[in-house]
Design brief:
Elements: E1 2-3, H1 16-24, H2 56-73, E2 76-77, E3 91-98, H3 108-121, E4 128-134, E5 138-140, H4 148-156, H5 167-181, E6 185-192, E7 212-217, E8 228-238, E9 241-250, E10 258-263, E11 266-272, E12 274-275, E13 281-284, E14 288-289, E15 295-301, E16 312-316, E17 323-328, H6 337-344, E18 351-356, H7 362-365, E19 370-373, H8 380-391, E20 395-399, H9 409-415, E21 423-424, E22 430-433, H10 438-441, H11 447-450, E23 457-458, E24 468-473, E25 478-485, E26 488-493, H12 510-521, E27 536-538, H13 539-544, E28 559-563, E29 569-573, E30 580-582, E31 587-592, E32 601-605, H14 619-626, E33 631-632
Parallel strand pairs: 3-4, 3-6, 6-7, 7-33, 17-18, 17-19, 19-20, 20-26
Antiparallel strand pairs: 1-2, 4-5, 8-9, 9-13, 9-14, 10-11, 10-15, 12-13, 15-16, 21-23, 22-24, 24-25, 25-26, 27-30, 28-29, 28-31, 31-32
Helix pairs in contact: 1-2, 3-4, 6-12, 8-9
């Protein structure tokens, strides 16, 4: 037995009250009125007996009532056999609830809530619990508590969100919660549809020793239809009309399934998915003319099916210029590998201008989305103007030629190189590439084809946390790196765009690589469908990415409004040129400025295609993976009816 509020036992001292009342109400002598004592004989006073307490049963009942009242307020309870471990300690329970988009399918979410409610109802005595909701991140909804009302209230407010399933952050947070409690038996209960794609063991931290882990699957017997992995948009033209051709890249199981293209909510075409060259499937739609305003495009299955999301979204527009300026040294002739590569790429096509000698004037420079420095030695004033152009939103690609050692210090700083003699090796090569970088993911450049490219001469680069490296040579030196500069971006290839740096310019990967680097630097790497729920976005940067807004970028202190698909609005102030916000779920988001006549910028946010995976872990597999060295309790398969486990 235990007491939840033992200090109330001090109220037992109130037994003095019935005792005093009992003594004050004892029998008194009867008073008799007598006229005179003159006729009575006097005598010695009699010896009086000590008075005894009377009505002891009544007194005992009064005292017992006070003691029982104090005991009741102390909230006694019996410790059940299943609420404590063998050592007699209470439980600390962490309930992990999957709220990723795949939990919207069928009755999965209601089944998950029933499972969580059953865990809350099992708490007794000194047991405490907390609820951790997770998708691509994890969040503790309440502090560990034994108050069932608080726990049920937090569970009732929980809803699925748009982030992809990731178990690592949830398990790590559960481990930290149990380590901070450290007062008894730790238990972790994971409730979800147990998608295998969410499991990355390298992200895990070990749970405290002795932790008991249980998994509860609510996936049921249904399957998820094939996902749209990515929407590709090709720019074409029909005379004076600008056209956009949308292609949905699908999983192979979608071959033969019908898909529709919607523009601004209206179905314009239905096509059947066919086998793609890469072994998957694709749905190719006829190019459509684009008006002067952006158009909201959605690709979805022609037949409504249960899915984590109702389609893949992308914005189609015609206002984004794709003009690239290539800077070369005065008097240079031939060797225009970069310009030739840019002209050869057609997805999407870019307009290329080659300038030799000095930097064009500011008015002409403002026409270009990207500038490629190729065998160009600038003057000090040109470097300052080029830097200002980047800070206003331009994209700069720098190839580091042998002459880079003669660059002005300002140019070396802009390109992130030092003034040392370039590294020269007879057998250098690109050894590692970040295949998940947007240069490769959003443009389709095969990262594996860059690995092994021979490079014999390249510039050394000092370590600087402002630069993000996404390719390295075999000696560990950076090959490709980037950094943000104001509202623009600088991307650097540490060697040259000609044969002086090696044989890369003769390889098939060179044209699409240079094309992708220029588009990425300019913020034009594919359609605006790459944002995922939960991504941090810079509202000011998204506005400036639209060339039409670069002449009037958001000013310091300006209020920007992010309008979500469900109608909710968030206001963010521009500070130091940025306005950070977060997209919570999938859909079309509008970014609005303070000026009434300023056009809103619309961006598309899509659920990650991993959420459509039907590959699942069993409860036993997930428990075994989560707890090397911890304790696994037997698990019971989720019943088909979706009822909670017994």
């Amino acid at each position: 037995m235990g007491l939840l509020a033992p200090f109330f036992l001090l109220a037992g001292l109130a037994i003095a009250i019935p005792l005093v009342v009992h003594l004050r109400r004892r029998d008194r002598a009867n008073v008799v009125v007598f006229p005179s004592l003159m006729f009575l004989r006097g005598g010695p006073p009699p010896t009086a007996k000590r008075r005894r307490l009377q009505h002891l049963t009544l007194l005992a009942l009064r005292v017992l009532a006070v003691l029982l009242l104090a005991f009741a307020f102390a909230r006694p309870f019996l410790r059940g056999a299943d609420t404590a471990s063998a050592s007699g300690l209470a439980r600390d329970v962490v309930i992990l609830v999957d709220r990723s988009p795949s939990m919207r399918i069928g009755d999965r979410w209601e089944a998950a809530r029933r499972e969580a409610e059953a865990e809350i109802a099992s708490l007794q005595g000194d047991d405490r619990a907390t609820i951790v909701a997770f998708a691509d991140g994890a969040e503790s909804l309440v502090e560990p508590t034994g108050d069932l009302v608080v726990l049920r209230s937090a569970l009732a407010e929980l809803r699925p969100v748009g982030g992809a399933t990731r178990y690592g952050p949830a398990v790590q947070l559960a481990g930290r919660v149990l380590a901070e409690q450290g007062r008894g038996r730790g238990e972790v209960v994971l409730i979800g549809d147990l998608q295998r794609v969410g499991w990355t063991p390298d992200d895990l931290e070990p749970l405290p020793a002795g932790t008991v882990v249980r998994a509860r699957s609510v996936a049921g017997a249904g399957t998820i239809p094939p996902a749209v992995r990515r929407l590709a948009v090709d720019a074409t033209a029909d005379g004076a009309r600008e056209l956009r051709a949308v292609t949905a890249q699908l999983d192979s199981s979608a071959d033969g399934a019908p898909y529709v293209l919607e523009l601004d909510g209206r179905v314009v075409e239905t096509v059947t998915a066919t086998r793609a060259p890469d072994g998957g499937a694709e749905a190719r739609f006829t190019p459509v003319p684009i008006p002067d305003r952006p158009v909201r495009a959605v690709v979805r299955p022609a037949t409504p099916v249960p899915a984590p999301d109702d389609g893949a979204r992308v914005m189609l527009d015609r206002g984004r210029r794709r003009e690239v300026l290539v800077l070369r040294a005065a008097g240079s002739a031939g060797g225009e590998f970069a310009a030739t590569a840019l002209r050869a790429a057609t997805t999407p096509p870019v307009t290329v201008t080659v300038a030799r000698g000095g930097l064009p004037g500011d008015a002409e420079l403002a026409r270009y989305s990207a500038v490629v420095v190729d065998q160009w030695t600038p003057s000090g004033p040109d470097v300052g103007r080029l830097r200002n152009w980047v800070e206003r939103g331009g994209g700069l690609v720098v190839a580091t030629p042998p002459a880079a050692e003669r660059w002005p210090a300002a140019m070396a700083e802009l390109a992130g190189t030092d003034d040392a003699t370039p590294t020269q090796r007879p057998q250098g090569a690109v050894a590692s590439v970040d295949a998940g970088h947007p240069v490769f993911v959003l443009t389709g450049v095969p990262a594996r084809e860059l690995v092994g490219a021979r490079v014999t001469r390249y510039a050394s680069r000092p370590a600087d946390s402002a630069w993000a490296v996404f390719a390295r040579f075999d000696d560990g030196a950076p090959a490709l790196a980037e950094r943000r500069l104001g509202r623009g971006r600088v991307v650097v290839w540490s060697s040259a765009f000609d044969e002086s740096g090696g044989g890369l310019v003769r390889q098939p990967v060179f044209p699409p690589l240079v094309h992708a680097l220029a588009l990425h630097a300019a913020g034009l790497t594919g359609p605006a469908d790459a944002l995922r729920p939960g991504d941090a976005v810079d509202l000011a940067g998204l506005i400036v990415d639209d060339p039409a807004a670069r002449a009037d970028p958001p000013r310091e202190g300006e209020r920007l409004t992010l309008a979500a698909p469900d109608g909710e609005r968030a206001t963010v102030l521009v500070r130091d040129g940025t306005a950070p916000a977060r997209a919570a779920d999938a859909g079309f988001y509008e970014i609005r400025r303070e000026a009434a006549d300023a056009a809103a910028r619309t961006v598309a946010v899509n659920v990650h295609h991993d959420e459509n995976s039907n590959d699942r872990l069993t409860e036993e597999q997930l428990v075994a993976a989560m707890i090397p060295g911890a304790t696994a309790e037997p698990t019971i398969p989720a019943p088909p009816s979706g009822q909670p486990h017994a």
